[in-house]
TrEMBL record:
Catalytic residues (UniProt): 208 (proton acceptor)
Lactate/malate dehydrogenase C-terminal domain ranges (all copies): 177-347
InterPro entries, A to Z: L-lactate/malate_DH, Lactate/malate_DH_C, Lactate_DH/Glyco_Ohase_4_C, Malate_DH_AS, Malate_DH_type2, NAD(P)-bd_dom_sf
Protein name in UniProt: Lactate/malate dehydrogenase C-terminal domain-containing protein
Stretches that traverse the bilayer: 65-89
Source taxonomy: Eukaryota, Viridiplantae, Streptophyta, Embryophyta, Tracheophyta
UniProt binding sites for NAD(+): 12-18, 43, 150-152
Length: 352
């Protein structure tokens, strides 16, 4: 029996990541080769023509899994109050109310010296406050909608969404650190000249920023003689504790420098990986990195969206517990946690 279509809302759908992401969703990369989807694509008025072009291309591609394609144009400005947002975002709210999966990836860089504050107003206002209004309309818990926030600052954007959308359980709101996770896998793969599929269980701790901590202390590589620790095979702690970490932390900036555009392809692919594993489950013995609402595990600050190693089963994520944290790692975890706490305080001051 054919499956019922899953509705997927993509915000910023006409942007670079959206253009790379929506065909992946329509092809089954995100939810599986047998899962039909209905795409709801949201963007702002300047992107209306481009968004219509994306829709035309989706039709032309004749994706067999794509059972519907709806685009929504939303007007919003920096100064809008919640009631005005509620009226102007009505079409978006109707889409969100029907959606099971939401990928918020349309973003805009803030000005130097006020990055988080600008992002809170310019990025969170359009998506997060709109979702908050839909939550008030629902009047009951929306346990079905799962949200992945990609737009930076991703962790803090996801936290604000959690605060302003009380009908969506905190466990259903996540942010993307799978891109950093995949970057770490790629660096180890290249260093050891092995298939990336043979490397597993790296960890991205903390914030999707330059303070994130890519950790290989528990990572392994499949070899002809069994799984071996990454550190044992690399045999270069100076590289693993130095260049490897900074390369992963600064990979996004390096790609922008190289192609003069952001890393849209890899971000879209990582978003698909994130949701696929969340919904369909992680392989046995393997964990992935996800930005989730912190319960204080590993002495990370509670009440922020923090990237942890997680396993997924039956549509639920669980933080991997009991991993040893050495002194070097402890300092890194604390540093990125402190940044997230600072971002939270700044974001809340903007919204108070």
């Amino acid at each position: 029996m054919a499956k019922e279509p899953v509705r997927v809302l993509v915000t910023g759908a006409a942007g670079q990541i959206g253009y790379a992401l929506v065909p992946m969703i329509a092809r089954g990369v995100m939810l599986g080769a047998d899962q039909p989807v209905i795409l709801h694509m949201l963007d702002i008025p300047p992107a209306a023509e481009a968004l219509n072009g994306v829709k035309m291309e989706l039709v032309d591609a004749a994706f067999s899994l794509l059972k519907g394609c709806i685009f929504i144009i939303v007007w919003f400005k920096f100064q809008m109050v919640l009631l005005l947002l509620l009226m102007l975002l009505r079409r978006a709210l109707e889409s969100i109310l029907q959606s099971w999966l939401v990928v918020s990836q349309g973003g805009r860089n803030g000005k130097e010296g006020c990055y988080v504050k600008e992002c809170v107003y310019l990025q969170v206002s359009g998506f997060c406050l709109g979702t908050a209004c839909s939550s008030k309309l629902q009047g009951e818990k929306n346990v079905f909608t799962k949200v992945l926030v990609v737009a930076n600052p991703a962790n803090t954007n996801a936290l604000i969404l959690k605060e302003f959308a009380p009908s969506i359980p905190a466990k259903n709101i996540t942010c993307l650190t799978r891109l950093d996770h995949n970057r770490a896998l790629g660096q180890i793969s290249e260093k050891l000249n092995v298939q990336v599929s043979d490397v597993k269980n790296v960890i991205i701790w903390g914030n999707h920023s330059s303070t994130q901590y890519p950790d290989v202390n528990h990572a392994t590589v499949k070899t002809p003689s069994g799984e071996k620790p990454v550190r044992e095979l690399v045999k270069d702690d100076a590289w693993l504790n130095g260049e490897f970490i900074t390369t992963v932390q600064q990979r996004g900036a390096a790609i922008i420098k190289a192609r003069k555009l952001s890393s849209a392809l890899s971000a879209a692919s990582a978003a698909c990986d994130h949701i696929r594993d969340w919904v369909l489950g992680t392989p046995e013995g393997t964990w992935v990195s996800m930005g989730v609402y912190s319960d204080g595990s590993y002495n990370a600050p509670a009440g922020v969206i923090y990237s942890f190693p997680v396993t997924c089963r039956n549509g639920e994520w669980t933080i991997v517990q009991g991993l040893a944290i050495d002194e070097f790692s402890r300092k890194k975890l604390d540093l990125t946690g402190a940044e997230l706490t600072e971002e939270k305080e700044l974001a809340y001051s903007c919204l108070s």
